[in-house]
Amino acid sequence: MIILSTLLTLSALVSCCNDPLCVGVQCDKTAVGKSNEKWDQCGVDKLFDGKKTADSTGYNYYCSWPNKEPWLQIDLTQEASIRSVTIHPRLKYETRITDIQVYIGNNAIENFAKNKLCGTTDSVMDKGVKTVTCKNGPVKGRYVQFKREGVMDITELEFEFGCNDPLCVGVECDKTAVGKSNEKWDQCGVDKLFDGKKTADSTGYNYYCSWPNKEPWLQIDLTQEASIRSVTIHPRLKYETRITDIQVYIGNNAIENFAKNKLCGTTDSVMDKGVKTVTCKNGPVKGRYVQFKREGVMDITELEFEFGCNDPLCVGVECDKTAVGKSNEKWDQCGVDKLFDGKKTADSTGYNYYCSWPNKEPWLQIDLTQEASIRSVTIHPRLKYETRITDIQVYIGNNAIENFAKNKLCGTTDSVMDKGVKTVTCKNGPVKGRYVQFKREGVMDITELEFEFGCNDPLCVGVECDKTAVGKSNEKWDQCGVDKLFDGKKTADSTGYNYYCSWPNKEPWLQIDLTQEASIRSVTIHPRLKYETRITDIQVYIGNNEIENFAKNKLCGTTDSVMDKGVKTVTCKNGPIKGRYVQFKREGVMDITELEFGFGCDDCNA
C-alpha cells in the first residue's frame, strides 16, 4: 500500500505548503449539485454525509440517473486543487460506477469538454469503490463533473485536495519501483513489498524479503525523485524483532554512495510485534532511492511510503555542513561540525567534541545561513560537567549576536543538576530565524546540539497531557486516571488495575479534555496485555464539542480490525485536526493502557 495522503468526505484536506487551493471546501456545507435527472431525494448534503452504501429500495442516500448519458456536476463554489476523486456505489448496483469520466475545471457543464479529464473509473465489475487519481497530478477547478454512458448510481463522493507539486504525488511503487539488495530475495520482488499483504508466516516465501548476512541492505528505486515524509515497515510473522534498528536513507545516490543521502531516521529498538514507522525528523526528504540497512538479519514483508510537500522552513538546514559557529571564547578544537557530528558526550580530558567557554557570561551563536523554523533545541553536556548546561537561555531570530535581545527567547534550560541532556521547547510554538544563540552566566560546556525544525503554529505544541488533561467516561475507570494514560507504562497484565482503563458495557466511550485547543495529527492506542483485540475498530473524534455532542466533532479515523497484538495508530486522514476534546468510542468492551498524541501544524507539515 502506498500512502499518498488520504481522502476527504466531510471536511477539507489541510493545506500543503499553506496554499488555499489545497484546503478545498467543506463539501457538505458549500457545494452545489446539478444533474440532468431526478435526484431521488438525494442532494449534495447526502453525497458528502459519510454514509457510503444504500440498499436497492432506499432513496435517502444515493443519486440515480436512468438515462443513456447521465451527468452530475458538483459546484465547489470556489476554485480548488483536486488530486483524486473516490466514488462509492449503490448496494447491488456496483457496476453502475464503472467507466465514469471525471472532469475538473472552471467551465460549467455546458462546456465540460473545455475542462481537464482527471481520469476514468476502471471497467472492473467488482463491488468496491472506484478512485480516480488525476494522472498528471492535481487539477485546479471549481466544477467536478461526472459522465457515464448508461445508468449511473452514486451514494457517496470523496475529494482529495492537494498542491499541484509532482513531488507530493509520489509514485505507484507496486508498478514502477525497482528493488535491489545484497542477498537472495526469497521469491519476493518489489511488487510483493507493495501488495498490501503485510504479514507472512515463517514457512512461506511469497510475501517477505529476507537477507541473512551480517549487514543486509535493501534499495527501492522509485525511478523518479519524490518527496517522502515517512516510511512504515511491516515485520515477518514470528520474526518481528528483525525490523528493529533499521536505518532508512533517502536521496538521489544509489546504494554504492548511500552515505551521501539523508538519514530519514532509524526504527526503534523496542522488540514488540508491531510495525515500525520512521518519520523523517526534519520534514520530508527528496530523493529517488529509499535504502534500508541493518546490522543483523532483516525481514520485511510490506512497505508503506507517505509522500508529502517539502517546505524549506520546515526542513531546516544540514547543520553539520552549512551552519557557522561564533563565540566569545576559544573553541577548544571544536567547530560547528563537531557540535552536529552525533557524538553526544565527551570525557573531561578530551578536546575533540566539546566547546567550553570559561568566562563569566559566555555565549555561542549558530548561524544556519538561512531562515528556518525551530520548534526545540536539545543540548548535550560534557561528561562530568553536566551542570554547565543548566540555565542556558536560547534565543532565535534574524539578528546577529550583537543584537540578540531583539530576537525571541525560545526558552531556558532548567536548573536541575542532573546528568542528562536539556531540551528547550519554544513555549509559544516554533520560532523563525537564521541565528540560534546560547547565553549562560558562568562556564558553559556543550558537546552536541540537536535542532527540531517545524512550522510556526502554536497549536503544534499541544499540551502536557499527564499534567493537564482531564478524563471522563461512561464507566468505572478501574483505578486508572488520566495520569496513568500518559505515564509511559504501555502494557498491563490481566490482573493489574494500576495501568489500564476498562469499560465493560456495550458501547463504551472515553473523553480526554486537553483543557485547551490543540492541533492533533495522530493518536496511538496501546492495548491491555492478553486483551489486545479490544482496541480494534475504535472511532477517534477530535473537536471542541463535549461527549454529548461528539458527532459534531471531526472523525480523525478508526483503528483497524486486525486482531494482532500491537498498538494501533490512527493518523487523521485529512491532516491534523484542531480541538480541545479527544473522544474514543467502540461497540463492545474497550481496554486501553496508554495513549500517545501526535501534535502537528495545520500547514506544510501536515
TrEMBL record:
InterPro entries, alphabetized: BG_Antigen-Binding_Lectin, FA58C, FTP1, Galactose-bd-like_sf
MF terms in GO: fucose binding; metal ion binding
UniProt keywords, alphabetically: Calcium, Disulfide bond, Lectin, Metal-binding, Signal
One Pfam family of this chain: F5_F8_type_C
Any one Gene Ontology BP term: regulation of complement activation, lectin pathway
Classification via Gene3D superfamilies: Galactose-binding domain-like
Signal peptide positions (record): 1-16
Keyword Cytoplasm (UniProt): no
Keyword Metal-binding on entry: yes
UniProt cross-references to SMART domains, sorted A to Z: FTP
Residue ranges occupied by any Fucolectin tachylectin-4 pentraxin-1 domain in the UniProt entry: 469-605
Function description: Acts as a defensive agent. Recognizes blood group fucosylated oligosaccharides including A, B, H and Lewis B-type antigens. Does not recognize Lewis A antigen and has low affinity for monovalent haptens.
Subunit structure: Homotrimer.
Family: Belongs to the fucolectin family.
Protein name: Fucolectin tachylectin-4 pentraxin-1 domain-containing protein
